[in-house]
């Protein structure tokens, strides 16, 4: 999946002359953690985060009175505190590559720029989570089986055929060699829900024919029960 299909394009931006106080107000009003800084042509020149604002703000132990403090915050410009050495991603690069850039640089979002360095979007960790959920098909509920299979052509099809023979639809198939034993691969298959009796029969046959690492049922009704509620 490409970044352009998942990035946010309805952006809030500021210019280099924006005051630190105004940037802080914008972040709070928009409930965002970073602001791209662009020039008049829309070219990305920097980014300022809530951490940058906190680091630049006077300490609570300051001897400045409220008027002096407000003057300082309103006079300090974003250009003085923004990050100029930027990590970015292109619209036609993959979401997986964007995730690597975030992980390696320990950041939670990336500006998306085109070949002219014009800002066209932002992709965040939340967007990455949405991609993972979409690929895995978690919202369908059902059950996920994890297998250790021989790394050879047809091994995944053999498992999938058994699952389908019990009337379950295949929702998603993910696999990796990185965490698997030598000459094997770990395969994760999510299938549609089944009545308990048919599910037990399916599990029994799978365990007889393949190496089943685990099976796990996601109960989507638990999402609402565990939702954080702010008084």
The gist of it:
With 231 residues, this protein is α+β, with helices and mostly antiparallel strands. It folds into two domains: 3-132, CBS-domain (Roll), CATH 3.10.580.10; 139-222, ACT domain (Alpha-Beta Plaits). It is 35% helix and 23% strand.
Write the layout of secondary structure elements.
Layout: H1 20-30, E1 34-38, E2 44-49, H2 50-56, H3 66-75, H4 95-105, E3 109-113, E4 119-124, H5 125-136, E5 143-150, H6 155-165, E6 170-176, E7 184-191, H7 196-209, E8 211-217, H8 221-225
Mean of pLDDT: 89
Number of separate structural domains:
2
CATH topology of the largest domain: CBS-domain
Q: Structural class from helices and strands?
A: alpha+beta
Just name the CATH architecture of the largest domain. Answer: Roll
CATH superfamily of the largest domain: CBS-domain
Q: Approximately how much helix is present in the residues? A: 25-40%
CATH class of the largest domain: Alpha Beta
How do the helices and strands follow one another from N- to C-terminus? HEEHHHEEHEHEEHEH
Biggest beta sheet attributes: 4 strands, antiparallel
Radius of gyration from CA coordinates:
25 Å
Low-confidence stretches: none
Straight-line N-to-C gap? 38 Å
């Amino acid at each position: 999946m490409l970044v352009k299909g998942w990035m946010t394009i309805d952006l809030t931006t500021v210019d280099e002359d924006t005051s630190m106080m105004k940037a802080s107000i914008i972040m709070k009003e928009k409930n965002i953690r970073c602001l791209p800084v662009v020039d008049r042509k829309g070219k990305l020149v920097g980014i300022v985060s809530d951490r940058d604002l906190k680091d630049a703000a006077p300490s609570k132990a300051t001897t400045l009175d409220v008027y002096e403090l407000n003057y300082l915050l309103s006079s300090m410009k974003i250009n003085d505190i923004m990050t100029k050495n930027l990590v970015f991603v292109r619209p036609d690069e993959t979401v997986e590559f964007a995730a690597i850039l975030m992980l390696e640089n320990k950041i939670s979002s990336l500006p998306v720029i085109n070949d002219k360095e014009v800002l066209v979007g932002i992709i965040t960790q939340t967007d990455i989570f949405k991609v993972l959920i979409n690929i895995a098909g978690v919202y369908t509920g059902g059950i996920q089986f994890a297998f250790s299979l021989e790394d050879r052509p047809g091994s995944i099809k053999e498992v999938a055929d058994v699952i389908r023979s019990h009337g379950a639809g295949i929702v998603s198939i993910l696999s990796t060699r990185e965490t698997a034993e030598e000459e094997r691969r770990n395969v994760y298959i999510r299938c549609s829900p089944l009545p308990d009796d048919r599910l037990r029969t399916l599990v029994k046959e799978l365990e007889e024919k393949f190496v089943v690492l685990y099976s796990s049922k996601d109960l989507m009704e638990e999402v609402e029960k565990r939702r954080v509620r702010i008084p």
